[in-house]
Every structure is written in C-alpha cells, then in structure tokens.
C-alpha cells in the first residue's frame, strides 16, 4: 500500500485530501515576529488577505515544515505498513524538501519502509496535478518505482505564470532579489513571473492589469498546440476571483482543467500578496 503525503503548498481542498487519504504537512505563518500559525489550520487565506489589505505595513513570514513535522506523518504511515510518496514545493523556494529528506532518513532507521521524496519543481496546483496523477496510478496498482518515474518526467514540463500587483511581498520574503523588485516595479508596471524547473523569474512587465492578463495568456497559449489534449491547466488566485473566473472560462472550452479555481494557500499568499492570479500548464503525456 502507498501513502501520499505533501506539504501544504499543494493547495488541495480538505475534502480532496480526506477522500484520498493524503497526509498534509503544514507550513508555518509567522505574524508580527511572534505569532506562529499553521498553514490552513490556524489561519485561512481569506483572513490573511484581509490583514494585508487593511494594513499597508503588514508583513508575514513563512517557515518550512520541520523534519519532526514530516516525521510524524511518515511514522503514521510506516506503522500502517505503507510505503510513502511525499511531494514538496520546489526546493528552489523553500527548505521543505530538505526537511522531508531528513525525516526520511530518521524513519528508515526505525522502520522497514520505502520512502520517496519528490521535489515538485512547482507549487500550488502544479504540485497538486502531480499528486492527482500519482493517486490515479495507485488506484491502478502501479508500483512505487513506476509512479516516481512518471511524476519525475512530467514535472519537468510544468510552468506557472503568475501576475502580481506588487513585488514587495516576494522581495521581502526573499523569493526575488531587491534589484529584480526595483526593475519589476518601475513605472507601476504589472510584473508577470514564471515558475519553471523550480525557479522563479520575471518574464514580462505590462502597464495595466487587463493588458497584463492578455500577455500572460499569450505566454500560456504559446506552450501548447490547440489540437493537443495532452496538457492539463489550472487557475489560482489571491483576491482576484473575477479575473481568475474569466481565465478559467477561456481555458475550459478547449482544455483539460482537473481542478476548479482555487485560492492560494496562506503560505503562498504571504509571497504573492493580494490581487494576484496565476495559470499553470503541465504536459501529462511524456
């Protein structure tokens, strides 16, 4: 039996994780330097977004799950006689992968259990699509080797295009350099970022949100042929429901979207800020 575990950056709904018996290891949200809250347990995205909008000086930091946090979930699965497939947010943006690897070594010294830790090279529903495919393969009685090999192939095709209102949260959180923040924020341009192969970079800067969304969709659509059904898409946002809905409606007429529109989890909202919207694409037939 194979147990799927993930950090909370995957943005999966609670109903989905419960239905598929997925173990979730939460990130920590640190507010005002002294209050530590568990992602999607002690604080929800809507609460965090309200704090951001109501206080221009507000800033929250995030910290990765500790090895002990992973150890708890791994040990539960090991005691049930399960092998483990664990997914983490890209290791370029967080130490979550390293924490999981440390926990893996500790648990394997105590239990006879096969644990594979997958660096998703992604985040949000990009990570979730890998999990969803892994679950499908578990139900097909595929082996751990087969599942690991497949998700490690398709993750290399994943891309997320992110439109943010401001780069200040990404810069404060250390996810982009101060120089990139200054360049991206010049003349009130709306920055479009791309997460590919685990790395986050600014790929375009556009005046006005409507025009920025058009440019973002042009970038997304350039990654596939209209007749190609091998790609899966997703749409997520942080306080940009209208724009996210319009993008979703545009995509769904010709494309495969395995998940509904999702609000970014608090750990990702801390870095994207409010007013952000993102579209992801991954080739699931490689």
TrEMBL record:
Pfam families: DegV. Keywords: Lipid-binding. GO terms for molecular function: lipid binding. InterPro entries: DegV, DegV_C, DegV_domain_contain. Signal peptide: none annotated. NCBIfam families: DegV (TIGR00762). PANTHER family: DEGV DOMAIN-CONTAINING PROTEIN DR_1986-RELATED, FATTY ACID-BINDING PROTEIN TM_1468. This is EDD domain protein, DegV family. It comes from Finegoldia magna BVS033A4. The lineage of its organism: Bacteria, Bacillati, Bacillota, Tissierellia, Tissierellales.
């Amino acid at each position: 039996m194979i147990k799927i575990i993930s950090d909370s950056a995957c943005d999966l709904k609670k109903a989905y994780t419960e239905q598929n018996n997925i173990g979730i290891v939460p990130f920590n949200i640190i507010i005002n330097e002294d209050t530590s809250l568990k992602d999607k347990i002690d604080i929800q995205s809507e609460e965090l977004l309200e704090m951001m909008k109501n206080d221009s000086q507000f800033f929250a930091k995030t910290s990765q799950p500790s090895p002990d946090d992973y150890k708890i979930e791994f040990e539960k699965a090991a005691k049930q006689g399960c092998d483990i497939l664990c997914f983490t947010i890209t290791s370029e943006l967080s130490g979550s992968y390293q924490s999981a690897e440390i926990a893996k070594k500790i648990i394997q010294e105590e239990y006879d259990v096969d644990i594979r830790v997958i660096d998703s090279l992604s985040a949000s529903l990009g990570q979730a699509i890998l999990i969803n495919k892994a679950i499908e393969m578990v139900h097909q009685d595929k082996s751990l080797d087969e599942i690991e090999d497949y998700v490690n192939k398709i993750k290399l095709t994943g891309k997320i295009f992110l439109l943010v209102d401001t780069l200040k949260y990404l810069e404060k959180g250390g996810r982009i350099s101060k120089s990139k923040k200054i360049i991206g924020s010049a003349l009130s341009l709306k920055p479009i970022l791309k997460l590919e192969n685990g790395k986050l970079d600014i790929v375009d800067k556009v005046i006005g949100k409507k025009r920025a969304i058009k440019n973002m969709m042009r970038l997304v659509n350039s990654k596939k042929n209209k007749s190609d059904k091998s790609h899966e898409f997703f749409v997520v946002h942080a306080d940009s429901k209208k724009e996210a809905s319009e993008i979703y409606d545009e995509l769904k007429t010709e494309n495969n979207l395995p998940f509904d529109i999702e609000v970014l989890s608090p750990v990702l909202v801390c870095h994207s800020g409010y007013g952000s919207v993102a579209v992801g694409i991954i080739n699931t037939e490689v």
